[in-house]
Amino acid sequence: MAEPRDEEFLDDPEAVEAEAYEAEMEEIDSEEAEIEALRAERDSFKDKFMRALADAENSRKRADKQRREAENYGGAKLSRDILPVYDNLTRALDAAGEKTEENAALLEGIELTMRELVNTFRKHGIEPITPKVGDKFDPNQHEAMFEAPVPGTKSGEIIQVSAEGFMLHDRLLRPAQVGVSSNQG
User: Fold this and answer.
1) What are the pLDDT digits (tens) for 15-72?
2) Do the bridges between strand 142-148 and strand 176-181 make them parallel or antiparallel, or are there none, so unpaired?
3) Helix 76-96 with 104-123: angle, nearest 10 deg
């Protein structure tokens, strides 16, 4: 079929209508493509935003956890360094023996100092581990300083406590130093 000339085209209303319809469809296709491109860009930005939001939340949680750990365990080194003071006060009380008129004031001073130290420990989350003779040895809380066969005991039983241990909140600050029975019966 031959191409219509411009005059013929103008005279044919159906051709004009078809041409307008075709132009309108091309415009709609172009707009739909543009809308799809905008939707894809929106989805990409939304995904990036959600990832950034999750990263920020994770960073906040991590910083909060680190702050809590620093608050709870930041003084662990100082706490370990003060434990010998506790040990020495305990030894002083043990060495002093019975309270007499001559040593009453000295013993009272040591006891008050010891009480204040224990209160300060508790205030900062430090709790003593005080095993007793006859308790079962726990490698998570006790350090075996020696093993010895002691009649009347079972293997793995604590036979002597050399030094108390300490926990800092839920972490072991220092294990209790103990002697353990090595009886095999």
Assistant:
1) 777 787 788 888 888 888 889 999 999 999 999 999 999 999 999 999 999 999 988 8
2) parallel
3) 160
Where b means 16+ CB within 10 Å and e means fewer, 4-35 reads eeeeeeeeeeeeeeeeeeeeeeeeeeeeeeee
- Residue 130's identity, in one-letter code, is T
| Domain 74-181, CATH class in plain words | mainly beta
Q: 């296709």: which residue's tokens?
A: 29
- Residue 117 burial class via C-beta count within 10 angstroms: exposed 0-12, middle 13-18, buried 19 and up: middle
Contact 157, 125 (CB under 8 A): no
Task: State the pLDDT at residue 166.
Answer: 97
69 within 8 A of 159, measured Cβ to Cβ: no
Residue 182 is given by DSSP the state -
133's torsion region: left (phi>0), alpha (psi -120 to 50) or beta?
beta
Give 43's contacts (C-beta < 8 A, 6+ positions apart).
none
> How many residues are recorded in the chain?
185
Provide the residue ranges of all domains of the chain, joining segments of one domain with +.
Answer: 6-72, 74-181
Contact 173, 167 (CB under 8 A): yes
